[in-house]
Amino acid sequence: MEKAKVPIVKRPLFSWIFSDNAKLQILLLFIIVVTVFARVLPLEMQKRIVNEAIFLRKIDMLLLYCGIYLASVIIASVLKYLINLLQNFIGQQALAEMRKALYHHILTLPLSFFRKTQPGLVVSSLSNELAAPSDFVGMAVGVPIINVLTLLAFAGYLLWLNPLLAAVSLSIYPLVLFLVPVLQKRVNIINKRRVEAARDFSGRIGESITGIHEIQGNGAYHIENRKYDGLVDKLRKIRFTWEAYRAAIKVTNNLFVNLGPFLVFILGGYLAIKGRLELGALVAFLSAQEKLYDPWKELIGFYQLYQDGIVNYKKTMDYFDIEPEFALEPVDRKPYELDGSLDINDLSYETDTGIQLLEEITFSLKPGEHMALVGFSGSGKSTLALCVGQLYKYTGGSIRIGGKVISELTKRDMSQNMGFVSQTPFIFNGTIEENLLYSCAARIREDSADLDDTLPNLDDMISILQQTGIFADVLRFGLNTILTHDKHKDLTSTIVRVRQNFQRDFGEELSDYVEFFNEDKYLYHSSISDNLTFGTPNTVAFADVGLIKNEYFLNFLKESDLTRPLLSLGSELSKQTVDILGNLPPDKVFFEQSPIGPEELDEYKSLVQRLKKKKLHQLSAQDSGMLMEQALRFRPGKHKMVVLPQILERLILEGRALFKEKISKDDPDAISFYDMSSYIFSQTILNNIFFGKSTTALPQAQEKINQFIIQLLIEEDLLETIIEIGLQFQVGSKGDKLSGGQRQKLAIARAFIKTPKMLIMDESTSALDNKSQARIQNLLDTRWKGKSTLISVIHRLDTIKNYDKIAVMKAGKIGEMGTYDELIAKKGMLYELIGKK
Amino acid sequence: MNLSAKNNESCESCEFDESLKILREIPFFSRIPLETLKVLAYLCTRETFKQGDYLFNQNDDDGQAFYIISGNARLTHTNGGDEQEIRDYAEGTFLGGLTLMGNMVRLFSMKALSDVTCLILTRDKFSRVMNQYPDLMPKIIAALISAIRSWEERFLNASDESCAACKKRIGVSLA
Questions:
Q1: Is A52 in a helix, a strand, or coil?
Q2: Which pTM does this prediction carry?
Q3: How many angstroms separate the Cα of A584 from the Cα of each of A114, A589, A590, A611?
Q4: Is A468 in contact with A779 (CB distance < 8 Å)?
Q5: Nearest-CA distance from B149 to chain A in Å?
Q6: What is the reported pLDDT for A837?
Q7: Cα–Cα distance, B10 to A238 (Å, whole number)
Q8: Which residue of A has its CA nearest to B13?
């Protein structure tokens, strides 16, 4: 845990300056003192060169003084760079520390905070707003000290040279010191507004990305654009004013500082003419005065940075200055192992705005008892589940798990003993396995090797996958994996062996659903290019993308009289597809059965326009290329808008034989032809077992295929291997490559696999079909009853009969509670509820 | 958009044209303009169910509408474990207009009596298309209403005394 006891949001900005970098800051100080000395030295040399070396005409003195001058200038530059480096290092370190600490803090904030906070706002706070404060931390020691010291040194030197001149030229600075803060006050006010506007701005972006379905579904682009554009303009205006004031400070400062030489010329010139000032001293005075500007400007810049930094820092920290509702880790003890009994006594929950969501809730469950929570939506079922799960902090009464009051348990205690499946479970980007083990991995800490927390092994995972019914999905992911040459050598040779057994045992039964690779038959579910090459390309030139530019292949098409019929097919395909899909948005679903991808549609639209005016032979090379690309992609089994002409089919089959003959002679390594005795690396494991392709997407057929394949895999002892591969399936961002049902099953598996003493399921089977739902219910009844206490929020009432207790909720209270039979016999609320559904 | 589907040489017998022809003859789709119907026809898939397979199952929400292109299928209802035959359907039947409109858990099952080839449209695809043409929804609803009304009208006219008890429960079109 963090060593600092003070939460980040309460830390003053100044505390960052020395906390982690005391040694570095001291080193910085030391370098600064040397630097100041190295900066003043040239001035004295300058004076001596003029007054002593030149005046006394001594070359050796000139060389000595110039040498010292040169050395100190170089040293000053090197040191300056060193200072920058150190400041940068300290600043970046502070930034990283602030980002980490703030992020760690934000994750612990109550759920209610996130309900009203846009993700975009958090992102911009963490990424943008902390930059100025951390820059300030980096410079906080170095810049003021070096510049104040330099100023003092130069001022002292000036006073020593000529007190009168010095006093006059230094008199400007107090004036600036008065003016700048006045302007800065305005800047700060505007900067506060800027932080808020920037927050709204990022919040809006976050909202529209999250709600993109609604926006596209309603075609509400203009509404969102208007809202967003308004915020951008607001931010633009504020930023403009902000920058204008900042620039005003700089300009004012410059103006006054530039008045310095003016005063020196007038007064110094007069004194020199009168012979009361040496010329060398005037030169030295002038350049010393000039040297005041840089440190002074830097000081003013630093002042601005300090002001911006403190505004940004405070605004950001204040926004997140909320206490976590529960302690994270137990102090001086191991996490509790609770027994799963639940006692709720006079529980109530009231929102910040005073709305009473739960009241007078009292009941208890013995360890292992199962309770269903039912009732109308809005009756408080989910709220109660969330309170028991310690996700909401109840406001009155008490909840005890295993005799311990929940509000005093740490998050760690809860995660050790409880599994929670939420209504809309979140699936993280990563593999199935990572998601499945998420809850177990979360229990493991570096510092708790004594807790006997090893991750479940493959057998445990397979058992949970089977119980929750996601096994078949994972198997399918495994079967649909394309293996690579280097990794799975042993597996590929096994699969080739399995393939022969498959064809012998199941080939006939599955022939309706599979199109086998057969050298003499056309493959309706493969592209024309696959039909021609009939193998796996070993070079990019013969892969799908390369083929269209491959001279050798294009020449082959010409020689075998395929070019024109293919172009004509490509033209028909393009026309038909554009005709059907031309006005549709780039939704993936619309383009699944189309050879033209959503991103290519516009190009093909204009190509189709040209096709209306021109004959095929008049087309440009690029246009013909596009048509050829369409034709080569064409799969008659999938792209139904055009039929493959009989004659072309025959030509392609002849072409296949011709191509094999030709390429075997010219470039035998270019393609590995489909062959019963070798693994096809461009195809999935399933297609390799089939030695063909599945021709149907029908669930019923898929299930049949699955049964055969599982039987085969068990016989061949491959099932675990394939599941292991399937577990590595990448689920995509938010699990978007999984269906709603798969996501829910995975979430249930994720909670089950840690075998918690207490399970809370919040309508967690709502996206499942009836069979899967019944399977989960059956699992709960047989495997979990008596072992884990369960609270299940249920919307569909057909699964509640076997629960030990049913609580019917109404308007935040428990209306009635009892077994199914008791409540039905009573003809009360449950009876009414079931009647209505 | 033109009617090129009609004079498309390479598509004399292609599935897309056949599907389009079928959709045009289904009353549920009858008020949808050709342009949109083409998209729907393109999105339809053709599947064959083996004899004895189920097209859909009671208590499932498969979200699919079926048009039987060939074969026979039997509608059944299971009540407390025993399966009752309701009636048989032959080619030319369209089932599932309501399924396309919104969540609908099946009250019946349908089993293929022979190999059955169907045209299938899913609710997901249908609703995505309808989202693109929101002004068509009233037309679909109108077609649906008239179908329900004429169903009850037929029922009223056809049912004789033997179903006096049923008459007590009629009135779907009043819902």
A1: helix
A2: 0.73
A3: 36, 11, 8, 21
A4: yes
A5: 25
A6: 47
A7: 63
A8: A643
